[in-house]
Specification:
GO molecular function: metal ion binding; prenyltransferase activity
CATH architecture: Orthogonal Bundle
Number of domains: 1
CATH superfamily: Farnesyl Diphosphate Synthase
Protein name: Octaprenyl-diphosphate synthase
Strand order of the largest sheet: 1-2
CATH class: Mainly Alpha
Family: Belongs to the FPP/GGPP synthase family.
Distance between the termini: 14 Å
Pfam family, one: polyprenyl_synt
Cofactor: Mg(2+)
Order of helices and strands: HHHHHEEHHHHHHHHHHHH
Amino acid sequence: MGVVVSFDEGRSDPEASLTDLVALVAGGMERVNGMILSRTGSDVAMIPEVANHLIASGGKRLRPILTLATADLCGYAGGDGAVKLAASVEFMHTATLLHDDVVDESEMRRGRVAARINWGNQASVLVGDFLLGQAFRMMVEVGSLRALDILSAAATVIAEGEVMQLTAAKNTETSEDEYLAVIRAKTAELFAAACEVGPVLADRPRAEQAACRSYGMNLGIAFQLIDDVLDYGGTSASLGKNVGDDFREGKITLPIVLSFRRGTDEERAFWRRTLEQGEVGAGDLETARAILRRHRALEDTVERARHYGAMARDALALFPNSRMKTALLQVVDFCIARAH
């Protein structure tokens, strides 16, 4: 069983695990980026200002990369369809980030001041809505009813996940199954949809579509679980937001679920005070980290992530060996390595 000893020293470089995939889809991503820039244009000046503040702030564009990669894996050679769907996926993701920051009252995103701080909550929500509208316009232009169904269904599930998270917020008695249901909907569903539309465009058999969806779903769960760990054991640079934001916002994540279940009455009282009642004082974040370490909550969350990563790998066993398949398998390494 792996043990997370330090999150700040002696870190491996997770970016190395993305190098091959980024190189393989570089041409397609150049077209995606061009389309993203063109589709954020508007006569309403605030729209491109807000949208580009977040879009241009970095981020790995992992979800659109996965759309291009799975389309290539399945032999798609049909023109702009994959590019438009990849841009749609990125717009959907960006819209959810804009909306999330309003709901969570976040101050940072991708290492920069959140858009809501500069332009206000109303502008962030409305520009997010604009991006969703543009995403659906591009989906329609592709002309695949099945792809449109997958991504529109994903938008619904993501919204459901956000509401589920609201009901679980500050509830320290949230179970592991309940929490996993939240992240399947809120985070992993878009990974799954981004991967599933590739083989759909290539008109591949349902078995291959299901395999790519399974890869994306399990990868997305692993990705979110590692994010949960990084909020308590990472750095602001690696996380793209302030470390401890989940704690300060009263979010119930898997490390909390595990440590609450395993803890003493005194420790559970600490979680209720800080997370349920929102009474967070000086030194409480360090106390939280100490409790998490005492019960191996961070290490065991990483182990859960490895489990889902293994399922993502297995999902691609259906496909013959290729450079693209190898690169997609390395993405699992990237997701897990962020915690080391």
